[in-house]
Design a protein that fits this description.
Elements (H helix, E strand, L loop, with lengths): L11 H18 L4 H18 L11 E2 L1 H30 L8 E6 L5 H13 L3 E7 L2 E6 L2 H8 L2 H19 L4 E2 L2
Antiparallel strand pairs: 1-5, 2-4, 3-4
Helix pairs in contact: 1-2, 3-6, 4-6
Length: 184
C-alpha cells in the first residue's frame, strides 16, 4: 500500500495542478467560507491525486521558469487577440447578404516536437472562428477553413512559431536541470 505522502506523486507539478484546481474552485463557488474551502481542498486533492499523470506524461511536461511563464502569458494574450480578430472577420462574412465564403481544407506541417504543444496548436486553431482542426497526425495538421484567406493565414500563422519558442525555452531549461518546476 502506498504512503499518504509519496514524493514521486507529490511533486511540484502535483502541487501546481492542485493549486490551479483550487483557484478554479474558489472562482466558481465565489465564496471563502470554511465549508466551501474544505470541500474544494478535498475535491481538488482527490482529482489531482487520481489523475495526476493521466493526461500529461512526465516527458511531455515543460519546465516553468520566469521566461517560459512570460512566454506562455504572451501566447495567451496573442491568442485572445487572434480570437477577437477572427470573430470580427467571421461576423463581417456572415452579416453580408451574399456571404462570400469559399470553404476549403488545407494541410500544413509544423516543427513542434512535443505532443502536448501540438495539441495546444490544434486547439488554438479550432478556437479561432472560421477554422477547425479536422485531424492531426504527428506534425501534419488538416484544417477546414471558411474562406481562402483563412486557409492562407492558417498555414503561416505565427502562433505555431510562438509555441515552438516556448517549447525550445522549456526544453533548454529542462535539459540543463534548471530551477524551474515541471508543469502538468
Amino acid at each position: 500500500m502506498k504512503k499518504f505522502f509519496d514524493p514521486e506523486i507529490h511533486s511540484p507539478s502535483f502541487f501546481g495542478s492542485w493549486l490551479v484546481l483550487m483557484v478554479f474552485w474558489i472562482l466558481i463557488t465565489w465564496t471563502l467560507n470554511y465549508q466551501s474551502l474544505l470541500a474544494g481542498f478535498i475535491g481538488s486533492y482527490a482529482l489531482t491525486r487520481f489523475n495526476h499523470s493521466l493526461l500529461i506524461t512526465p516527458e511531455q511536461r515543460f519546465y516553468i521558469t520566469r521566461k517560459t511563464a512570460f512566454m506562455f502569458l504572451r501566447y495567451l494574450g496573442l491568442m485572445l487577440v487572434a480570437i477577437f480578430k477572427a470573430n470580427i472577420d467571421v461576423a463581417k462574412i456572415v452579416l453580408q447578404r451574399q456571404m462570400p465564403i469559399s470553404p476549403g481544407i488545407v494541410k500544413f506541417k509544423s516543427d513542434i516536437r512535443k505532443d502536448l504543444d501540438r495539441v495546444i496548436l490544434a486547439n488554438s486553431i479550432t478556437l479561432t472562428p472560421g477554422t477547425l482542426t479536422i485531424d492531426m497526425v504527428d506534425d501534419v495538421y488538416v484544417v477546414h477553413c471558411l474562406t481562402r484567406e483563412n486557409a492562407e493565414e492558417v498555414c503561416s500563422w505565427n502562433m505555431g512559431q510562438e509555441l515552438l519558442q516556448i517549447e525550445r525555452a522549456g526544453s533548454e531549461t529542462g535539459e540543463e536541470g534548471g530551477k524551474g518546476h515541471a508543469a502538468g
